[in-house]
Design brief:
Layout (H helix, E strand, L loop, with lengths): L3 E4 L8 E7 L3 H9 L9 E7 L2 E11 L10 E7 L2 H13 L3 E2 L4 H8 L5 H12 L3 H11 L2 H25 L7 H23 L1 H9 L1 E6 L6 H9 L17 E7 L2 E7 L9 H16 L2 E5 L15 E3 L3 H4 L13 H15 L9 H13 L8 H18 L9 H5 L7
Parallel strand pairs: 1-6, 7-9, 7-10, 10-11
Antiparallel strand pairs: 1-2, 2-5, 3-4, 4-5, 8-9
Helix pairs in contact: 4-5, 6-7, 6-14, 7-13, 13-14
């Protein structure tokens, strides 16, 4: 695969610029620029030279194959953070036959060398993309291998059950002891129930990873756009006294007490002869239907009554004009924080049972494994063994031990260069 390099810190001026090397020639090339590094995993202060040209003074490290992030021989330069310094070192690396890494290539090599399973890779990708505390916690747990360890424990139980069944097949002329059949049934049932628990938590985990959508729904001039601006604490949506000002869906992404939430300001629901406004209303209905939560502002228009779902919220606006008890005001801020607290409580309750699986690929593998285990424990041993084998294969697919190539483009394309 060759030896690769990449800048692991964001491009631009900063305090430090980190350039990483990985591959069979990493140590040889690294030491050709800075001199011998006798011990792995130790930090050394070195002058970086390309021939007679002094590039920089830097801290450097090396890692032996098998003990680095990628599992390959690795080398790392910590340079001063001037872009010209990083570019000069990169030129020296290219002149020595190294190439720039593709996005996610370091992580792909970690997967290929067995340093990470595919679920950990997906967790790491989510961790790098996390914007809220809830997303960070979920991604950190997955990237640490929690889902892979759980899958391995399931496979271990299924292997034990398979061993008991195989023994019974080998001694088919003899009656299978009752305790063997009972143990096999308990192992299958335990694994199936544990997988079912993770599957039940998948929708919540997926929402945590992707973020919730909360649609503001109501009649024209109900105060939806003003409310969105109050949530954002800045002017995002245009607010005027003219009905029908909002034509398209206006979005605002927020970190709501640690939960990722995207608020949607939608067009006012009403019958209209304006062709452009009609399109806006149609889009508003579609996004409101797809949202995780609808916040109805003011009187519910007849055109929006069919959008109400269990768990939706209702709020009165313009308290500064009406003086209505319990209403909120986007002008004075009355009730805004309390409203956000209510929204948080509703969404927090929906993710209370979040599991470890948060990707469609993971949920599909779990669902197929669970389906394979829906077999009568009193069935013939041969059928049970086949069911266990099939379930085990899907659990291996979960962590990328088989059929991993099918997901490479999807999983690794989202990584940044240098990771």
């Amino acid at each position: 695969m060759g030896t690769i390099f990449a800048e692991a810190t964001p491009p631009g001026r900063g305090g430090v610029s980190i350039i990483r090397l990985s591959g069979a020639e990493a140590r040889q090339v690294g030491e050709s620029l800075c001199g011998n590094l006798p011990e792995a995993r130790h930090c050394y202060f070195r002058l970086i030279r390309d021939g007679d040209d002094l590039i920089d003074q830097a801290l450097v490290f090396r890692f032996d194959a098998g003990s680095s992030f990628t599992g390959e021989e690795s080398f790392e330069f910590q340079l001063h953070g001037a872009p010209v310094v990083a570019r000069r070192l990169e030129a020296a690396l290219i002149s020595r036959g190294l190439r720039r890494a593709e996005p996610g290539e370091f992580t792909m090599r970690a997967f290929m060398s067995g340093r990470m399973d595919l679920a950990e890779v997906e967790g790491l990708s989510d961790l790098l993309a996390a914007e809220t505390e809830a997303q960070r916690k979920l991604a950190a747990e997955t990237s640490s291998g929690a889902l892979g360890k759980l899958a391995e424990s399931w496979r271990s139980d299924l292997l034990n059950a398979g061993a008991l069944l195989t023994a019974s097949i080998d001694f088919a002329d003899e009656e299978i002891p009752d305790d063997v059949a009972r143990d096999v049934g308990q192992l299958i049932s335990s694994v199936r129930e544990s997988i079912a628990t993770q599957l039940a938590g998948f929708p919540a985990s997926a929402r945590l990873r992707e973020g919730f959508e909360v649609a503001l729904v109501g009649a024209p001039n109900a105060g939806k756009s003003s409310l969105l601006n109050a949530f954002a604490r800045r002017d995002i949506a245009i607010v005027t006294a003219q009905p029908g000002t909002t034509r398209d869906v206006v979005e605002f992404s927020a970190d709501l007490r640690g939960l990722p939430v995207r608020f949607l300001d939608t067009a006012g629901m009403r019958q209209t002869s304006d062709d452009i406004e009609k399109i806006g209303v149609e889009r508003a209905r579609k996004r409101a239907e797809e949202a995780d939560l609808r916040l109805f502002v003011g009187e519910i228009p007849e055109d929006a009554s069919d959008l109400i779902r269990d768990g939706d919220m209702f709020v009165r606006s313009k308290a500064d004009l009406t003086g209505e008890a319990g209403a909120v005001s986007s002008v004075t801020g009355i009730g805004i924080e309390e409203l956000l607290d209510r929204i948080f409580d509703v969404l927090q309750e929906r993710v209370a049972g979040a599991g470890l699986a948060s990707h469609e690929r993971q949920a599909e593998a779990l669902a197929r494994a669970a389906a394979a285990l829906k077999i009568d424990p009193d069935a013939e041993p041969e059928f049970l063994v086949e069911a266990l084998r099939e379930a085990g294969q899907y659990l291996q697919r979960l962590v990328g031990k088989i059929d991993a190539e099918d997901y490479f483009d999807q999983v690794f394309s989202s990584f940044c260069v240098g990771k």
